[in-house]
Please model this.
Amino acid sequence: MNYIPSSCGLFGIMRKKESGKIPGSIPVKCLDYIRYRGSDKGSGYASFNLNDTNSFTVKIFYNDEEEKLRTLLQEHGIGINSSYMEKGRSIKSCCYDIAFEDSRSLDEVNAALWNEGNGRLYSAGKSLLVYKGVGYPDAVGDEYALNEKNADMWLAHTRQPTNSPGYLPYWSHPFSTFNIAIVHNGDISSFGANREYLKSRGVTSFVGTDSEVIAHIFRELIGEYDLITALKIMSGNMDDPEIRYKTRGCVLDGPYTLIIGYDDGHDIYMIAMADRTKLRPAILGEDENNVFVASEESQIRIISPEAKIWTLEPGSFFISSMRNGIIKYGRKNLKTRGKVHKIKKKGIDARNIEYNRLDSEIIRFMDNSVHINNVAGHRHIGITFPDKHRNITLYGNAGNCLMNLNENNNVTVRGNVADDCCDSMSGGMLKIFGEAGDVLGQALSGGRIYVEGNVGNRACIQMREYGSSIPCVVINGKFDDYLGEYMAGGTIIVLSNSSRNFGKYIGSGMLGGKIFIRGRVKSQNIGVQPSNLIKSGMLKALKIAGIIENAQYNKMMKENFIDIIRELPEDAQIYARKYYSGHQIPDYEYRSLSSGEKHDLKSIIHDFDSEIGKNSLKYLNDKFTVIRSRKV
Model:
């Protein structure tokens, strides 16, 4: 198979209380399906089997005589009850059922192993066993014969190394410590601060990858706080100022998605987290037997075609336990993605076509109209299509980079679409009878995109227009954060009523074009506004300077910054501008549409209704929140 370097890939699956154990072949299959996200530099798996025994198992990569390792354990007060060996392709693994009194003794052993350069303790827990190595997902699965193993929960990871080497399994995921395992996609830019915090707590030995600190941070927090509080701290959502200050070194920053597996002695948990701007994908799912976390929807669909699927909200977390089911869905006002539409026309069967070869296959057989069936995460469809005004229909779920650079071709998707769709599209039409992922329509400069369902994070960023080419996007559902960020032209229309919890930071950095959102949008969700602390300081300064009266001060203290700057007297604007850039906060109105706006939008919405099968023209008489660039 031909691979193009991508990013890491994740998968997690947990059985429900009344369901049977999950065969190890399942995580291997679902991870290997997206092997193009990783490389031959590392893959790994973690299994959890909740039990009532007192046995505690550690697994140690070791490249010296085993007797020396036994002596090291005994010197640190660790007794060995039983043992077995796993012989990997690159290094042997010594596995022990142990007894110990102080958990820090295992940290001391790990530090000694790493300092001597001959090993690493990489798995530790009562219910947890980690299997990781150097190679693609199927090779590592075969190495440990995972098809012969079963578990209550599995985590899986395929690696594209960015911050550490890949020639030994030390650096492969999962990373583990005391009944905890994590897999991670992205970069933890707070790694330095996180590591310093851990050193202050006595954890001093690290293999050098940013991912490893996550497991240790979680271990420290869960020993002191409840699960929800620990996750709020890690995700930067802690409200309590005292706790926030005390644990400031535990906040994760940077682009990341991660899965945590955790055994508290009574139950096992599967947790997913995404950064506040959600720069890495996170797909969640559930069927009657299992709960899922994945990098791509296709990983879930290949084993559960009818599963309910949704995406993780930016900066949020998902929690599920085996005994109690889903505790936090990771999204407010949850609406699951639609199922794959049934095939109605004969055409190209994508099932046996490589993930990045479908584009060329379509071109080889393409006439004026073509149907492609069984699309399941195939990437880069349409990137090399010629400018031929052809009609393409996809049945299934399209992968990343659908119709990027499209000119004049018309594409219909009977299913959902992954991230980075229609990047730099300059003409034609895309109709999505389902949901769209993150970064839909980046740098869109022409054509139309119609979405029947919801769209993800950063839709329509850097959208622009040239001359008479005015792009348009119509969204029938809701959207996540940063809609229309750095928008310079074109029209975005959102037809769902805004009371359904739309995203934040709408129109931030906006330079041109207009966004029409049906209903009233909360003003604090428009643009990137200064904090309440900054707002308070500015207003106090203006009051002390005699620029605003006390009554104005008291009124404005209750308002959002975007509303305050509209009310400030002209001589105060020069001071306010010190706290925000000119285009950081757009302007907005909540009102009925003007006759000219109704005229302009009528043809767009009529076309949307005709193509998608809706009845939306009646909404033109409703009030809209109209967002545009601010005059500076």
Remarks:
- The mean pLDDT is 91.
